[in-house]
Specification:
CATH superfamily of the largest domain: DNA ligase/mRNA capping enzyme
Helix content: 25-40%
Number of strands: 24
Distance between the termini: 46 Å
Bound molecules: 2-(butylsulfanyl)adenosine
Radius of gyration: 28 Å
Largest sheet: 5 strands, mixed
CATH architecture of the largest domain: 2-Layer Sandwich
Strand order of the largest sheet: 2-11-10-3-9
Number of domains: 6
CATH topology of the largest domain: D-amino Acid Aminotransferase, Chain A, domain 1
Number of helices: 26
CATH class of the largest domain: Alpha Beta
């Protein structure tokens, strides 16, 4: 809006001002992030200044506006860090998680995959070290001075806990002889002895105690008052790094030694191994010492030692290909199965949940556990083969509960010798317990699903809850409880996500029974709710995709899709063309690294044109401004290009070539079409090279490709 189109503030009502204020705040916050975090401004300085002036004008005319909202206005901000609670820190190098291994074969598989990816048959060394059960922290040093400490957050943006980290004894404030910029990463944890003493003090003072050392460490670090953190005995092990202006060393092992020489605590059980056998030997050694280490660990981490190889291996969407966490086995306990409830999820899956006599498993009280699906209860796997020796699970049984770290506990086994004589086999419902629609099992699917779709209230409510959840639209004041209330409300019903965006208009059009006059609401809370909804009319593409709650499309796939397609229009058009499950659009979709055919099929199935479900999605999008997402590395020479590899590659494997191209923002397709920009042809290239010639697609060899992408 240009200045002369803006309504004079003197003519505005407070709700109108709140709505415009919230819109402006969101546009400005996004602009801030784009400018400060991504170095990719989305608006001109002049527009930014104009919007900021308008914001200040609104705030001056309606002084209550900011207090009525829980958002912080950009008029109060410097750069991109919001001032509420902890400031946010955008990690310059993402903080990733680790793929898990549970069995010896998984470790051998890991080593094989590394070799295959690199096409490497010579020596290959790994480091092996304990996996510390705490919370990760990134410490940024500039010219040897600690300038910032940030938690992992969602891996891209963490919380600024600098002042708190300064109180931790193991964290040096200054370094000598360090690279100009050095981000040291590691784990904050609490020792068993310190944890016990802290809890003893807390219970003597009548305060709440912590369930385990990890919660105590997290709760102590994330204190708004750094004085509280200082009084808690936190420790820190360094095991990785983020941004560095000069390499720490040539290998992981030497880099850790270097961090130790700089003054960080590094774990003394870190060693070098030459393959799966020695990795497993060290795993057993560490496991046998686990109880006497004095701090919690939950596995052993293996990392490829040579940093050059690590760089070639690179990353999947959230985990590096060069490391794996070999977890310790889960903890077990026995209790009585009191009942089996069936829950209906947002994709219609009927999930049996065990109601248990509460029991402590590894320090946590468990009263519910998953029973997976009907086959699992009956003692069969999805292919009909026996599990647990074919023993079924019945209400009243004495059952074994299994808990592995944060994973939802499950019923693992049953003791038949304690089964009551009159115990009856469990009959799994074939109708949805919520809407009565038939519940079907598709061929090859282990899950029975309600076929009611949007008519099933359980599915509809679960979809709405997902839609407003944190990683999705995250609408302030509209949580699971409010969603259930509006879903069942006769005056202002919300049955689908689109209905959320008509709430304010419907309320305005209803002269009687205004929301603000109803129980549990009031003028301010309604204004806040409507403003929060307004604020989310502008939404980044990845969040929108995730919010739709499509089966197999979680946050990772959503962000892959958003980066691949850039805009909602591109995505939906590609889906319309891909709904025959063949052709270049389908191939491009299934070719996205990390997507896979199952997710692609689920996405297309959920958005098939001319269905009621698609109609609802189109209606929703009609209410929104969807912000495009920046493709990966848009400044690389191949960003946005569609490339195809063919023939034999000699300098790298096909998987490595594909991953590299995608990390540079290129799309890698399986076949040549009119949309292909570049064919990289090695020796032995056949029909694809001919197709390229026919279609006038540029063809280069592997060396030219490497020169193009900078080696
Ligand atoms: S390496 C790029 N090493 O485990 C991967 N992580 O489950 C960098 N963790 O987020 C992590 N001990 O918080 C690494 N010795 C260790 C670790 C470790 C604990 C944590 C870390 C990570 C999580 C993944």
């Amino acid at each position: 809006m240009s200045e002369d189109q803006m309504r004079p503030v003197a003519m505005m009502s407070e709700p109108e001002a709140v709505a415009e204020w919230a819109d402006l705040v969101h546009l400005l916050l996004d602009a801030n992030l784009a400018y400060h975090r991504d170095d990719a401004p989305v608006m001109s300085d002049a527009s930014y200044d104009r919007m900021k002036r308008r914001l200040a004008e609104l705030e001056a005319a309606f002084p209550g506006i900011q207090r009525a909202m829980t958002m912080t206005s950009p008029t109060d901000m410097v750069g991109a860090a919001p001032a509420d609670g902890f400031g946010k820190v955008a990690h310059r190098v993402r903080m990733l998680s680790l793929e898990n291994a549970f069995a010896a074969e998984d470790v051998a598989d890991f080593a094989d995959r590394v070799r295959k990816f690199l096409n490497h048959s010579g020596d290959l060394t790994f480091t092996a070290e304990p996996k510390i059960d705490g919370l990760s922290l990134s410490l940024r040093y500039e010219s040897g001075v600690l300038v910032q400490a940030a938690t992992r957050g969602d891996g891209e943006v963490g919380e600024n806990v600098t002042e708190n980290a300064r109180t931790i004894r193991d964290i040096p404030q200054r370094l000598t002889d360090a690279p100009e910029v050095l981000e040291v990463r590691g784990e904050v944890y609490m020792s068993h002895a310190d944890f016990a003493a802290l809890n003893a003090r807390a219970s003597a003072a009548g305060d709440k105690t912590f369930a385990n050392p990890r919660n105590a460490a997290a709760g102590s670090l994330r204190q708004l008052d750094a004085g509280v953190t200082a009084s808690r005995p936190l420790r820190f092990f360094a095991y990785a790094w983020g941004e560095v202006t000069s390499p720490l060393a040539a290998t992981q092992f030497e880099a850790i030694q270097r961090l130790n020489a700089l003054g960080f605590q590094t774990n003394p059980l870190t060693i070098l191994c030459d393959g799966p056998d020695s990795l497993l030997a060290h795993y057993n050694r560490i496991e046998s010492q686990r109880a006497t280490l004095g701090y919690d660990i939950d596995g052993v981490v293996y990392k490829v030692n040579h940093l050059g190889l690590q760089a070639r291996l690179g990353f999947r969407s959230t985990t590096p290909r060069w490391a794996i966490a070999h977890k310790f086995p889960a903890e077990l306990a026995w209790t009585t199965l009191l009942g089996i409830d069936i829950q209906v999820g947002r994709t219609g899956a009927l999930s049996p949940v065990a109601r248990l006599q509460p029991v402590t498993v590894g320090g946590v009280v468990v009263s519910n556990a998953t029973l997976h699906n009907e086959d699992y209860i009956a003692g069969r796997d999805s292919k009909g083969a026996e599990i647990r020796g074919g023993k079924d699970i019945r209400v009243g049984d004495w059952v074994q509960i299994y808990r592995a770290g944060d994973v939802i506990p499950k019923v693992a086994d049953v003791d038949l010798s304690r089964r009551k004589i009159d115990a009856q086999p469990f009959v799994f419902p074939t109708e949805c317990p919520e809407c009565g629609s038939p519940a079907h099992r598709e061929e090859g699917d282990s899950v029975r699903r309600c076929t009611g779709g949007l008519i099933c209230p359980a599915q509809a409510v679960e979809r709405l809850k997902h839609f407003v959840s944190r990683g999705a639209f995250d609408i302030e004041g509209l949580g699971a409880k409010q969603v259930e209330m509006f879903f069942n409300d006769e005056i202002l019903p919300v049955k689908t996500p689109a209905d959320i965006f008509t709430l304010a208009a419907r309320d305005a059009a209803n002269p009687l029974q205004k929301l603000k006059n109803r129980d549990g609401f009031g003028e301010t809370s309604v204004a806040k709710l409507f403003a929060a909804v307004e604020a989310r009319r502008t939404i980044p593409l990845d969040r929108l995709i995730f919010a739709l709650g499509i089966r197999h499309i979680g946050e990772t796939s959503s962000s892959l899709l958003a980066r691949h397609y850039g805009t909602w229009e591109n995505l939906i058009q590609a889906i319309d063309f891909a709904c025959t499950f063949t052709g270049p659009d389908w191939e491009s979709l299934t070719g996205i690294d990390g997507m896979g055919e199952v997710s692609a099929r689920a996405l297309v199935d959920a958005l098939i044109p001319a269905t009621a479900e698609r109609g609802e999605v189109d209606r929703l999008v009609g209410f929104l401004t969807v912000l495009p997402v920046k493709a990966a590395e848009t400044d690389s020479p191949v960003a946005g290009k569609t490339v195809v590899f063919t023939g034999t590659l000699e300098k790298m494997t096909r998987a490595e070539a594909k991953a590299r191209a995608e990390s540079l923002g290129a799309k890698v397709a399986g076949s040549v079409s009119a949309k292909t920009d570049l064919l990289i042809a090695g020796p032995g290239a056949g029909s694809k090279a001919k197709d390229a010639e026919r279609l006038g697609v540029e063809v280069i060899d592997e060396d030219a490709w490497l020169r193009l992408i900078g080696g």
